[in-house]
Amino acid sequence: MDNLQTLKQAFTTALGIDAAAVTDELTYNTIPEWDSTAHMILVAELENVFDVMLDTDDIIDMSSVAQAKLILQKYHVSFG
Fold this sequence. Notes:
Elements (H helix, E strand, L loop, with lengths): L2 H13 L20 H15 L5 H6 L3 H10 L6
Helix pairs in contact: 1-2
């Protein structure tokens, strides 16, 4: 599984949403499933699957799928 698939799977698992809903345009608090509690579950899932430790600013800034990709790139996770 490539990093993009892993990212989508992490969102699907953490938020309990369909994989088709995981697009770059998906933004925090625009769906009921992505609230503050789910955000922390998502962060933990991303840290787990990509073996990284996100800092507080990155956790706060992670407001969309597209933003999650940009943040993870700072931790040497590439998306082809």
